[in-house]
């Protein structure tokens, strides 16, 4: 287990819930489709054990990007092409967790810095510079490392973060570090008394309420658009 420390570990079901992706699509994108010649789009850092599959934090971010691409109507052949081109350029299979991506309609753009240190936008597949009037910034809630450019924290919900360096990557209340699931369970077990739970965990009632709101949102699958592969 030591080699998994700091990477985060999520089963397919948990990864699907967090990324807002249908569990069938999660399996297809990581394992391929046995009924066709379509191979995997993504490749997990964590080896499968029999029929048990898991992904890392960076895999989770990749999964979320693919899910969002599909939500915005980008085809799977285009996603595969973009992923392959970016992976070759940045030298990592976590292409979607590595770079600052944007969308203009269904065109995938990458923020770049030119030789003069000026920021520019480039179409990933054509390599052409772009100056779109309408730009959809991707993954505004992801924080990237200044050292290697890889995703390192996901501000998944108000007051809640997913950080592979904390609590094995499970969602936590950012202020206290307590797992949101634990806080929400304590809240339910104590007659929904946020002040009491806050005292028990040495935190604030607002932190408890953020954890409860997140767990309710997660259970309801709200606002994490699902689209068929």
List keywords for this structure.
229 residues; alpha+beta; 35% helix
Can you give me a brief rundown of this structure?
It contains 7 helices and 11 strands. The protein is of the alpha+beta class and 229 residues long.
Would you kindly provide a written description of the structure presented here, covering whatever features stand out?
- α1 (12-19) crosses α3 and α6 (194-201) packs across α7 (205-220).
- This protein has 229 residues and is of the alpha+beta class.
- The protein has a domain at 153-229.
- It has a five-stranded antiparallel beta sheet, with no helix packed on it.
- It contains seven helices and eleven strands.
- It starts with 9 loop residues before the first strand and ends in a 9-residue tail after the last helix.
- Whole-angstrom Rg: 19 Å
The coarse overall form would be globular
Q: What's the number of extended β-strand segments?
A: 11
Helicity, in percent?
Answer: 25-40%
H/I helix tally: 7
Oligomeric description of these chains:
single chain
Largest beta-sheet details? 5 strands, antiparallel
For the largest beta sheet, what order do the strands appear in spatially? 6-5-4-3-7
Question: What topology emerges from the helices and strands here?
Answer:
Layout: E1 10-11, H1 12-19, H2 23-31, E2 54-55, H3 57-71, H4 76-90, E3 101-104, E4 107-113, E5 119-123, E6 129-130, E7 136-137, E8 142-144, E9 151-157, E10 160-162, E11 172-173, H5 180-189, H6 194-201, H7 205-220
Antiparallel strand pairs: 1-2, 3-4, 3-7, 4-5, 5-6, 8-9, 9-10, 10-11
Helix pairs in contact: 1-3, 5-7, 6-7
């Amino acid at each position: 287990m030591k080699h998994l420390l700091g990477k985060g570990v999520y089963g397919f079901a948990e990864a699907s819930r967090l990324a807002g992706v249908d569990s069938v699509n999660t399996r297809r994108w990581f394992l391929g489709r046995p009924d066709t010649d379509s191979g995997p789009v993504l490749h997990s850092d964590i080896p499968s054990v029999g029929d048990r599959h898991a992904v890392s934090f960076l895999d989770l971010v990749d999964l979320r990007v693919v899910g969002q691409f599909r939500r915005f109507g980008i085809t799977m052949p285009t996603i595969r092409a973009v992923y392959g081109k970016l992976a070759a350029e940045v030298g990592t299979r976590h292409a979607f967790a590595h770079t600052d991506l944007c969308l203009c309609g269904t065109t995938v753009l990458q923020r770049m810095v030119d030789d003069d240190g000026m920021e520019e936008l480039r179409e990933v597949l054509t390599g052409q510079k772009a100056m779109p009037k309408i730009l959809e910034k991707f993954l505004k809630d992801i924080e990237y490392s200044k050292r290697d450019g890889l995703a390192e924290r996901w501000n998944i919900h108000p007051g809640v973060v997913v950080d592979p360096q904390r609590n094995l990557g499970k969602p936590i209340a950012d202020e206290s570090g307590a797992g949101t699931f634990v806080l929400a369970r304590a809240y339910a077990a104590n007659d929904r008394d946020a002040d009491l739970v806050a005292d028990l965990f040495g935190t604030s009632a607002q932190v408890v309420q953020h954890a409860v709101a997140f767990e309710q949102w997660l259970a309801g699958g709200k606002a994490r658009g699902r689209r068929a592969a």
